[in-house]
Inverse folding.
């Protein structure tokens, strides 16, 4: 019986490598809920089970959603007394600034910045 594996897309692999660089291979594995060897295979660009890749991609998406939510919360606390319309404008400006910074650095723009409007306060 032969098992079919898949290789992570370059963007997924890059996001995993970035997470590993920020902490460690074992830390990322623990956060994702997989073995460190499974994460290592993704980092190396080796094949993994499709279910393994799905778990990693779901974790990456949830992690970025959490970052976006935290950023909005901080901005809203800082601008607590401003009108809602102004808060939304500032959120959009910050989003554009961060997106531009990624582009100028030649880095892939995180998914939470692309194509999504911030939720209204």
């Amino acid at each position: 019986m032969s098992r079919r594996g898949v290789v992570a897309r370059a963007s997924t692999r890059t996001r995993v490598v970035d997470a590993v660089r920020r902490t460690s291979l074992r830390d990322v594995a623990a956060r994702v809920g997989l073995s460190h060897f499974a994460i290592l295979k993704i980092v190396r660009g080796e094949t993994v089970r499709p279910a393994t890749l799905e778990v990693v991609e779901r974790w990456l998406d949830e992690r970025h959603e959490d970052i976006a939510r935290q950023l909005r919360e901080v901005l809203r606390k800082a601008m607590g007394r401003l009108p809602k319309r102004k808060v939304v404008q500032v959120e959009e400006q910050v989003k554009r600034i961060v997106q531009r910074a990624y582009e100028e650095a030649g880095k892939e723009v995180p998914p939470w910045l692309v194509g999504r409007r911030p939720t209204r306060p």
User: Anything to note?
Assistant: The two ends are 54 Å apart (CA to CA). The chain has one domain: 10-113.
